[in-house]
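Table 4 source record.
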Amino acid sequence: MSAYDCDVLVVGGGIVGLSTAYALTRAAPGTRVTVLEKEPGPARHQTGRNSGVVHSGIYYRPGSLKARYAVRGADEMIKFCAEYGIAHAVTGKLIVATARAELPRLHALVQRGRHNGIPVRELGAAQIAEYEPEVRGLAAIHVGTTGICDYTAVAHRLAEASGAEIRYGAEAVRIDRRPALGVAVRTASGDVVRGRVLVNCAGLHCDGIARMTGDEPNMRIVPFRGEYYELARPELVRGLVYPVPDPAFPFLGVHLTRGIDGGVHVGPNAVPALAREGYHRGVLRPRELAATLAWPGFWRMARRHWRYGAGELRRSMSKEAFTTAVRRLLPAVAPADLLPAAAGVRAQAVLRDGTLVDDFLIQEGARAVHVLNAPSPAATASLPIGREVASRALTALARA
């Protein structure tokens, strides 16, 4: 540790890791930051494989990190895109109740949105057509601050603007953390990178990086594959249309999203993946699957939510079942309108007792900061998340 390559060593070149690097160099000019990313470029996983929505923050519990950072982050993300000429639009979205049992939850969302400082408009059944002529429901709310953007372009711009050294193709395979000295990371190529403080933004692999550092995170990532279709008739949807989510789950349900390219994504359906990067059904990594099955929280989660999981699995295996779910919102859709699209994988933290972690989770160790749960809306909230992580890293650096 006699010669440091950097002050802060960030593992993970997704939007959260790059936002952290960007925040570090702005909060403390002169701080040397190195980012290690195992892929040949940024944003190859959760950042580049989502629907591109800039979330308003209406869903999240008041006072939670998700609520605070999503509301703030949405405004900052739109301004960031405008400043750097990145494709974006503020489209608004509809959240639609299609059954009477959903009406109390829809009303609760109105109250939550207003508590979080988000302007919402309540709509009756006839008013839905003002925004979406082909969508049907009993009632809806319109959230005007929701938008869309190109998060991959955002990640590239953050990498450039951060001034950090970005090392692509640098997978961390071993970490030697010595509290009195610093952190050394060996990459798959055999290089060793030394830093005073480590920041773990490894997404799908964040629990493994934490344990490699010597910190027990008391959670494990359970990967859920998000399966999407592309709408062959994009003219059926003008903007963004969501169902009323079930508050027992951190998933928002099958929704329709007009992207920045004009196409309409339908999904995601969420099913457990057989690998951390299991973007296709046939991808199986036995060691990763065995690690998931060995975590007691996985089985407790499965026992608690098996009915919900069975429904997701049925829609995964049956296009007809998936179409039926979409028709609740968009009756005109037919199976032939749904064309297979690229899938994503959500890095969902699960506690030992089976609890699905519902908020962003950031933990600290000696000379280390670990981001352990940052699925949606982390892309929306990435700029404030990056500042929070950077602040903790700088505090650790000052103690070093």
